[in-house]
Amino acid sequence: MENEVSQTDAGKIAEICGIHAGDGYLRLGRQTEMDISGSLEEREYYTNYIIPLFESVFLIKIMGRTFPSRKTYGFVIRNKDVVTFFIELGFPNGKKTDIVSIPKSILESRDPNLYKKFLRGLFDTDGTITFLRRKGKYCLFKRMHNVYPRITISTISKRLAEESAFLLEKLSIRHSLQTQKSKKPNEHDNYRIWLYGAAVESWMKIIGSKNPVQLSKYLVWKKIGYCPAGSTYADRLNILGVASCSNG
Question: Which domain does 40 fall in, by range?
C-alpha cells in the first residue's frame, strides 16, 4: 500500500483528506473500517467522483450504498492498509469531530495545489454555498431574489477551522473566521469560515467544486443572476437544461 500510494498524485490524496475531514469516520481495532457518507442528494457526487477517486488511489473496489437509518449515501472500506494509512497521516482513530485537523504533510508542504485540493474536499463534504437577498438601497430585483453569494464551512474543531483559514490566507482568498459560542454546557462551540461576494468567485476560480449539488447552485446563479431559495438539485438541473452537473 505504501509504495502504491507514494506513486499517486499527491493532490488526489490531499482532496481525499479534505473529504475525510468533512464526512469521514475511521477506526482500527476490533473493528476496522472507514465510513464516508453524505446526504442522499449527493449520491451522484459519491458515485461519479468520490468513489472513483478512492479507487484510483488505493486500487480497491468500492461499492456505494444507502444507509437508511441515517438517510445518507456513501461507502465503507474495511481494508486495514487503507485505514492505517489515514491514521499515519494523523487522523484520529475513532471519534474525530472536535479534534480533526489538516495533516502536516499538507499544512507544511508550501504547495498551493495541495491547499486547494484539501479545501475543495472539505467544502464539498462539509461546506455549502447559499445566496442572500440584499437589503437597503439596492434595486428591487436584488431585494426580492437571492443574489449575493456566500460560502460557509462549519466545524466544531477549532484546529481544523484555524488551519483551513490559514490555507485560505496563503491562497489570498478573503474570508472571515467566527466562533459561535455554545449556549449549552454539553455542546461544543461552532467555528465558521465565511466567504462573501467576490471571494466566492475567487474560491470557484482557484479551488472550485466537484460536488454537483453545490456546483449547480453556483451555475444557476451565473445563468439567471440568482439561485431560487429552497431549490433542489433536480430543480436546478431543469433551470440549467442539463441532465447532470458532474464534471469530474
Answer: 7-96
